Structures are given as C-alpha cells and as structure tokens.
Amino acid sequence: MPTRWYQEKKREHFYKQAKKEGYRARSAFKLKQIQNRFRVLKQGNTVIDLGAAPGGWSQVAKETVGEKGTVIGIDLLPVQSLEGVIFIEGDMTDDESIQKIKSLINDKEADTILSDMSPDISGNYSVDQARSIQLCEQAFKTCNELLEPGGNFVCKVFVGEDFQEFLQKIKKQFQAVKQFSPQASRKTSSEIYIVAKSFKKS
Predict the structure, then answer these.
(1) Annotated catalytic residue 16
(2) N-terminal to C-terminal alpha carbon distance within the chain
C-alpha cells in the first residue's frame, strides 16, 4: 500500500506541474488523463463545462477542440476570463442558464458535456455522497437538454449506496459507459469518473 507520504508527494507533483504548465488547477490533469484514455473530445467540438471554476477543465478542453471548437463554462462563482472560452456566471439548473447556453451555440447541441462538480464538503461522508449524486443527476439532466445524439458525457461522482442506481440510469442512455480513476486523483479519495459515450436521446 502507498504510504501517506507518497500520496501527498504525488498530489504535490500534479499541483506543481499545473503551476509549471500554466493550468489553473491540478484537476486539469484528470481531464487530460481521461482524454488520453477515452478520447471524449475532438477538434472542432462544442463542449459544455459544468461547474467550471476555476477553469482548469475549460483550459484543457479548449486546447483539445482548437480554434474551430467552442467551450462554454458555467459556474455559480465568477471565473477569470480565458482566451477562446465563454464563461457564464449562473446556475446550470435554471432554465434561464440553459437558454443562455442554447443561444450561445445557436440552438445547436453540444458534442460533450463535462462535470467535475463537487459538493461543499461537510465531513459527513453519507451527506457529501448524496449531494454528489444530486449534482450528477443535474448534470445528467443537462445531457437531455443540450447533448446531441452520439455525444459524450464525463461526470465526477463520489461512490456510495446510491451510486449503482445512478450508473444504471447512465447505461440506459449511453452506448458505452466506463468507470475511471485518473492518476491525478488522490488515492484516498472516493471520487471516480463516469465516462459515457454515444448518447441515446430519450
């Protein structure tokens, strides 16, 4: 088993690497590792980044989709501007926010929806896990509103008693569904990522 020292060292490695490479958060490497494994983003794609602050995932997404691609990030918190990315300060569960995104992409649909959202940690794991599932449910609902048939969805979730039930919902609407723990995640964390490809619109 890795020692706590080793785990902290690894965490520090990705933090330092993010600073060195100009990423806003070490979580950028989680998306990079997901992309390397599953190719959820392509040149020219339209990408929606839910819970985008501080913008690390939006940075990686924009690098990947290139100049012809579109990245829109939304968060309750203001996000510092980033060249080539549109940030919306708003609640993704509000119809107003959904309509705003639709107008920005000219009523088209997104190729990929990303969610690295995490609840405010209370310290009570069962509460935090339930809140994590709620955020995932909201992100999944956004797929039905904004994701094109055949599109991809990446969602962070805390594993717990209602995880399997949520996973089954995803499997009903995506052709291929995998669970993935990026190397950049802390070994002590119970977070995993659901990587779902080829959306079947309900």
Answers:
(1) no
(2) 44
